[in-house]
Amino acid sequence: MFFRKKKKEDPNKKWYSIGIMTENGLEDGEYEILLDKFLEKVDNAGVITDLVRKEYDKERLEILEQKFDYPVLSSPAFVVSEIVQEDIIRETELLEKKHKWKKFFGFISLAEYLEADHRAIYNFNHAVLYTDSMEEVIHFLNQKSKETVLSNLN
To answer: Which residue of 1, 24, 67, 97 shows the fewest CB atoms closer than 10 Å?
Structure first.
């Protein structure tokens, strides 16, 4: 029996989420094309999601618009946010605290956990880039990945 040595993930690596924001949502084919482009060119994107502007929380959108000085962007626009693990843990704990009995009996659904994760991941207070250029997103994420590698060498 031969065992493969597990590749250890860098604990200092920063992960980012990419929100693909459109007015009415993407068709499955469009989403797959964008997803494939990101996945083949960047290695630090943990979550890539289609965000529909008219269905999204207005307060969160206002935070995003204010943070980036109300840019005029075409559709689709891309929101890159740093994934903060502590926020995910906090949102999960809030969900479990709110539904103590459901947690006790194991009745909190996967959809509820995913919704809590989504709230934490797309907290636009952690947004670092808001643009309509896919190339700019790829360049930004690759630059951040290089910075992580360089900081580990020191």
So the answer is: 1
Give the separation between CA 53 and CA 26, rounded to whole angstroms.
11
Q: Is residue 36 over pLDDT 70?
A: yes
Which residues are CB-neighbours of 66 under 8 A, at least 6 positions away?
none
Average pLDDT, the chain: 88
- Dist. CA 29–CA 80, nearest whole Å: 22
Q: Taking the model in full, what pTM does it have?
A: 0.82
Cis peptide before 76 (omega within 30 of 0): yes
Q: Is pLDDT at 152 greater than 90 in this prediction?
A: no
Name residues whose C-beta falls within 8 Å of residue 31's C-beta, 6 or more positions apart in sequence. 20, 50
